[in-house]
Amino acid sequence: DWSSDVCSSDLIKDFEEAFVTASNKEVMPLSHIDDIQLKGAGPLTQKVMERFKEYTEQETWQDLLIPRYQN
Hints:
Radius of gyration: 15 Å
Order of helices and strands: HHEEEEH
Strand content: 15-25%
Distance between the termini: 39 Å
Structural class: alpha+beta
C-alpha cells in the first residue's frame, strides 16, 4: 500500500481536516481517507476554498508570492 509510505493511518486519524486541489476540482474537502472518516471542511479548508475562489475570479491573476514561482 503506497499510502503507508507517505502517511500512516495513525497520523491520518489525528487529522482535523484535509483537502485536495486540482484544476478541475479547485479545493475539495475530504470526508474520508481510505476507511478513516474525517470531519470534512473545517475552518482552514473553508478559508483556502474562499481564497482560491477570490483569486480565480479575478479578471487578471497576480503573480503568486511563492518563492519557487519568483524569478
